[in-house]
Amino acid sequence: MSKISPCIWYETEAEEAARFYCSLVPNSSIDRVQRAPIDYPGGKAGNVLVVGFTLAGQSFIGLNGGSPATFSTAVSFTIHCEDQAEVDRVWDAILTNGGKANACGWINDRWGVPWQIVPNGFTEMLASTNGEGAKRAMTAMMGMIKLDMAALKKAFDGG
């Protein structure tokens, strides 16, 4: 278990969400499912209360809090994708599972949790010493919904 684990609040769907997230990225697993020993606000004894899971080596906790949670982009999770095929696969999985696409590579899953789906190499473009290329890549990204690495690279290179 990591020393620090983000805890994501769900109404009652923590286990379902954790299983979905684990399907998105390698090196992911459900580590434990804890059931409530007593009735609690929003739930009964025996209901799933906490789900410990690992995504790509990072530990998380899913909590069934019994009331709807409000998520914002103030805290989000980034999936760094090896290539455009992985960007497409992860993006499409979230979208077809009830997600909502936003701008600039952001997508909310069906529970409202915000994610950033980022192709490897894009962050390096923005941090590049090629300031004009970084500006062009950033400008291109601002016009996208799902990030397109080929288009970002073309903009970075000045094409």
TrEMBL record:
One Pfam family of this chain: 3-dmu-9_3-mt
Secretion signal, residue range per the UniProt entry: none
SUPFAM superfamilies: Glyoxalase/Bleomycin resistance protein/Dihydroxybiphenyl dioxygenase
InterPro entries: 3_dmu_93_MTrfase, Glyas_Bleomycin-R_OHBP_Dase, PhnB-like
Matches recorded under Gene3D superfamilies: 2,3-Dihydroxybiphenyl 1,2-Dioxygenase, domain 1
Domain (PhnB-like): residue spans on this chain: 3-118
Record's protein name: VOC family protein
Species for this entry: Tardiphaga robiniae
